Amino acid sequence: MSTASAAYPVGTPGIPWGDAERAEWLSRQTRQRSYKSDVLIVVERLRSRFDVQEYGRLEYGPDVYPLMAIRSRDWRADRPVVLITGGVHGYETSGLHGALQFVEQMANRLSRVTFRMASTWWMTPRACSRNSSRL
């Protein structure tokens, strides 16, 4: 059994990537998810039960991704406060999907607390391409 691995098709092993290698890596990528269908449509479904607001935007090339926050409609300081976050790190989106599913499934119970849910971005796609030599 051989332990040697094939060289990655971009760059040279042991040499940090430069602009050309990052550009080549990025040109090989294909869109695998839709922010609109995976996130924004789910958030819109929750708008009838919760306050929804855009708190920022992520711009990547020609694309713009609104960052959304969901919170209790009847915010009350006398209730326990809960922060629900769901993060995206590179291409890993399970944190964000889990937070959205939690809010959807627990909507009735969330009326007992004051809560806010916000998506977080630990590494944007641009940062991911800048750091791809570490992947």
Give the secondary structure arrangement, pairings included.
Layout: H1 19-27, H2 35-46, E1 51-60, E2 63-71, E3 81-89, H3 94-105, E4 114-123, H4 125-130
Parallel strand pairs: 3-4
Antiparallel strand pairs: 1-2, 2-4
Outline of the structure:
With 135 residues, the protein is α+β, with helices and mostly antiparallel strands. It has a domain at 52-134. It has helices spanning 19-27, 35-46, 94-105, 125-130, and strands at residues 51-60, 63-71, 81-89, 114-123.
How many strands, which pairing sense, and closed or not: the largest β-sheet? 4 strands, mixed
What is the β-strand count? 4
Task: Give the percentage of residues in beta strands.
Answer: 25-35%
- Alpha plus pi helix count: 4
* Order of secondary-structure elements: HHEEEHEH
Rg on CA atoms, Å: 19 Å
User: Pairing-aware structural class of the strands and helices?
Assistant: alpha+beta
The portion of residues assigned to helices is: 25-40%
Global mean pLDDT: 78
Shape: elongated
Residue stretches low in confidence (pLDDT < 50, at least 5 long) are 121-135
- For the largest beta sheet, what order do the strands appear in spatially? 1-2-4-3
Q: Distance between termini?
A: 25 Å
